[in-house]
Amino acid sequence: MTKFKDVKIDIVKDETLSKNWYHLRNVTFDYTGSDGKTVRLKREVYDRGNGATILLYDPKRQSVILVRQFRMPAYLNESSGWLIETPAGLLDGDNPADAIRREVMEETGYVVREVRPLFHSFMSPGAVTEVIHFFVALIDVTEKAGDGGGLIDEYEDIEVMEIGLDDAMAMIERGEICDAKTIMMLQWAALNRGKLGS
């Protein structure tokens, strides 16, 4: 970081391009680099709020609960659009732990009380402001409180899936699981299986 200690950022203009669903901005700024030169740059920035995701793991069965749902951006980039993911959602004003408990119930039908925070991460910092908070919770897959499947009024159409951890890791290699947050969580689980009670 020593090289960048004198870097300076001065925002000149912050324009809203769209605020239809989330907030798309065009930011103009002066960047004084490590060489002392100042250049004026523009970047489009997408602000959709911060989110949370969780790995639901059953240590007795060594399986995880994942969800499959349609994602239009993936569909537009040479994919079927149907992604297998860890349950996740935006914070919507809640703290990350409360938000992920809410999302788990809505998407999967499981109730989780003890959620263990793991880390947080920018997922696409070149264009998106979002930070994702990562959690893990131990569950018994036979103890389900509801159907899950998402919120009807938000047109969510979510399939709940139980997959063995080893099978899920193989699905990554085959390209069947290609969602970044899910890959991160599954790799974390594979490295920490002994700490998860299996």
List the helices and strands and how they pair.
Layout: E1 8-18, E2 23-32, E3 38-47, E4 51-58, E5 63-70, H1 72-75, E6 82-85, E7 88-90, H2 96-108, E8 116-122, E9 131-138, E10 159-164, H3 165-173, H4 180-191
Parallel strand pairs: 4-9
Antiparallel strand pairs: 1-2, 2-3, 4-5, 4-7, 5-6, 5-10, 8-9
Helix pairs in contact: 3-4
What low-confidence regions span 5 or more consecutive residues with pLDDT below 50? none
The chain-level mean pLDDT equals 91
Which percent range describes the beta-strand content? Answer: 35-45%
Structural class computed from helices and strand pairing: alpha+beta
Number of helices: 4
How helix-rich are the residues, as a percent range?
10-25%
Largest sheet: 7 strands, mixed
First-residue to last-residue Cα separation: 40 Å
Give the overall shape, derived from the CA principal axes.
elongated
Task: Report what the structure shows.
The protein has four helices and ten strands. The protein has 198 residues and is of the alpha+beta class. Helix 3 packs across helix 4. The protein is elongated and about 60 Å long. It starts with 7 loop residues before the first strand and ends in a 7-residue tail after the last helix.
Short summary:
The chain has 198 residues and is of the alpha+beta class.
Output the keywords.
198 residues, alpha+beta, 19% helix, 3-stranded antiparallel sheet
